[in-house]
Write a structure and sequence with these properties.
Farnesyl Diphosphate Synthase; 309 residues; homodimer; mainly alpha
Chain lengths: 309, 309
Amino acid sequence: MNSEFFGRWSAGVLDRVEQALDAWVPANAPAGLGDAMRYAVLDGGKRLRALLVQAAAEAVDASASTGGVDAAMRAACAVELIHAYSLVHDDMPCMDNDVLRRGKPTVHIRFGEAQAMLAGDAMQALAFEVLTPDGVVGSEQVEPGVQARLCRLLARASGQSGMAGGQAIDLASVGQSLDEQTLRDMHHRKTGALLRASVQMGAACGGVQDSSPVWAALTAYGEAMGLAFQVVDDILDATQPSDTLGKTAGKDADANKPTYVSLLGLEQARSEADALLAQALEALAGSGLPAARCQPLVALAHRIVNRDH
Amino acid sequence: MNSEFFGRWSAGVLDRVEQALDAWVPANAPAGLGDAMRYAVLDGGKRLRALLVQAAAEAVDASASTGGVDAAMRAACAVELIHAYSLVHDDMPCMDNDVLRRGKPTVHIRFGEAQAMLAGDAMQALAFEVLTPDGVVGSEQVEPGVQARLCRLLARASGQSGMAGGQAIDLASVGQSLDEQTLRDMHHRKTGALLRASVQMGAACGGVQDSSPVWAALTAYGEAMGLAFQVVDDILDATQPSDTLGKTAGKDADANKPTYVSLLGLEQARSEADALLAQALEALAGSGLPAARCQPLVALAHRIVNRDH
């Protein structure tokens, strides 16, 4: 897939994801709650998780499964809702105390702390609402078994064994000299779990079973990308100016938080990112999936590892 | 069912619920997160929501459905996890700023605000993890369709159209003179939605379909009990001393929050509670369910309306 084709593919996906989020995040939730939720999730970010869901769904041809297209859009929006809620809570004064995100005031600055906490809570619930649509009878209904499986994958990636657990380790790690294994465990949960789950959820939309080689290959791809994402994040934090990143560079180092760069050095961190890219591509190549269908996943892997912000 | 029999029934249920929560809320979640989660949910409260799930499951004989007993225990624990997380977040300084709950320091006092927020977030995720067990193959597996339906009911009761939405109205209502309809809408969402969902989830464990008269009857029971619970709460808040309630009496009135008592007067509020009890019992009597199986629901309705704390 050349970059022009990938550009078209991702633009189409992003357009549909924004439309779906716009439809599913309610404007009419009571007492300003809907405004806070929409502020937090619409028009924001690179939608990397949604792209991974959609690319994995394309790799396994989810459109051939009953309700697979709808399932993949629901899964893409659900992971974005979880990601967005985690940022809202993360930005609050008792956590990172950030006042700006993507150049806009953070949710608690704009709507107050109580509303920000409630909006985050409601966004987590909404993710599971989106995954379990009310019974649409007909050929396009997402199969109940797929709904349950998507909830299972998302809940485990979001909770104590995933994102929330990683944030707890992060919280406890400030000023500590973490060893490499603890650092990896933290990132494996904090960002890796949801990135991996995005790929798995896309695969689940195509009915790929846990025991199949395709599931194992896509899981390996998701694992590698989850880790690579964080390694590159640490490299960019150490090397790029704030205005390129759209956030305060060097913040982790200033807060004395351990990073892959502080632990491995810049050169070794860069080698690790390249090795993870190679692992991910190798997993895809050995998956038995048609190469043409894997092109969005291949392109995303290159983007994740070679991005400059 | 005489009160001795109900006492035995509820003691048995509560014992099994505590054991299940003890098994499912992880002690080994990282960096103290598991301790905070367990502190927040174990050994706490009257478990009214779990009792409603189990009583409704008994009314529809969920034990006759594949995996129905396991489903009903998972549903009971999931609603308790949602309820417990909402209390953790509600108690935080940006919300009600409570330092004691059931005579113990609140979670943020004991573990810090950041850990309390994360514990609440992880407890919400855990509720959905509990509802979607990893594939246990065999006759006791909860059917995927039931798993998806339980997630659907719980997510809608927890999010913007339910509990979180009600909390947003509550937040916006301090010092406002709410009219009766807004007050009812607030409580309908804030506490009513999860109580109603508890009854519905119990019914779903027995495979009762949305379109059936039994579903309608149990929904009516759940609606009436959701509202009655709050009316009685307001009556107790206005009439009982703090040491009987185990919380600060008169707090809502002091905060200038509207209540059923401030709106309707004590006598009218009491009549309303009695009328809701009659409605709930009538719904059960007309449900076509065997009266013997409905005894726990009948006893719970009396408890909710005639409790003294």
